[in-house]
Records
---
Amino acid sequence: AVERTLSIIKPDATRRNLTGKINAVFEDAGLRIVAQKRIRLTDAQAGAFYAVHKDRPFYGSLVSSMTTDPVVVQVLEGENAVLKHREVMGATNPAQAAEGTVRAQFAESIEANSVHGSDSAENAAIEIAFFFSQIEIVG
Ligand code: CMP
């Protein structure tokens, strides 16, 4: 089925001017960028977005790492978009990411791992609504 997923190009990647190279990986995989904006997250926004991880030891560091530089938030659309996006991102830890994936090519560390993607269709709907209104998504 055609799905949408929420993608974030993280500060480590925008800092190194990798937005276009990462978008090319997504587009080559058949994902269509149907909404996109470059924003700077506040601490409160990053903390709220990652609230599901608030009891994890890396939460504070993760939240502050998301505010050091701009992020590019985007909605990707395509057949099986959630899974397809996760496949092309590669494993969370770049040391375990398959060759050719975004994280294998570009990530600096498990925290500075260049991209975020929703992990299910249900969470995709929640995460898309966190950043975008319906009129900003043009399929
Ligand atoms: P992301 O897919 O955005 O989801 C949560 C983020 O927490 C993850 O990518 C990493 O950037 C960050 N993180 C830092 N340390 C860890 C860890 N040990 N395990 C999982 N995620 C981590």
---
Amino acid sequence: MISMKELHKSFGELDVLKGIDLDIPKGKVVVVIGPSGSGKTTLLRCLNVLEVPNKGRITLDQQTLDFTKPVPKKTITQFRSNTGMVFQNYNLFPHKTALENVIEGPVIVKKTDKETARKKAKVLLEKVGLGDKMDFYPFQLSGGQQQRVGIARALAMEPKVMLFDEPTSALDPELVGEVLKVMKDLANDGMTMVVVTHEMRFAKEAADEVIFMDGGVIVEQGTPEALFNSPKEERTKKFLRKLE
Ligand code: ADP
């Protein structure tokens, strides 16, 4: 479904991704863990080309972008429309209601007519447990509710893959569970997902594959059982020991 080959990204002199190879089969949940600064968010942002890689290739479904040559903006926009991104800080439009936030993408980007978009948005907001909050503005919603709007908004674009960038790290602890539950439901529905998170329980319970990154490379990857219970690499062991 989605793959990265020999992907490199640097910011000026700083090499952040140093050759990433990763294959994510359709319907699988991949959780990316690793120390702060190891390149997890950059990896995710390269996957939907919010950051343009310096080298390497990304394939999503049938479409391959080769970053050894300049990629036209239009191609990037089209590629990105197949991905849904959920941000740490929700990134909702503050002056729009939950429903308006969810229909924005389909109406503006996909040119869906407003009524169709509205109907679909209602279904999605119900799915994330916000059927009674559709006309609320972000400031009237808790962080967990805002993030669930963020998830519904990403889903409204009918993405082939959902990308989550530390979706619960801005939340008060008691609100984390409701967001993780929506994510688990999505995983059970067969959505392909890449999740950067510090929630090791989510990784253990929902991931098909866990990626451990450090220093801009994938140090180790495997099933949650393998990675958490019998890590092979010293750097993985050290990271996991610190979490205990
Ligand atoms: P992680 O998500 O694992 O904490 P990031 O991908 O956010 O790591 O960051 C990796 C490194 O890249 C950090 O040193 C960070 O400061 C740097 N970095 C990230 N984004 C930018 C940017 N837009 N400009 C310059 N440096 C950046």
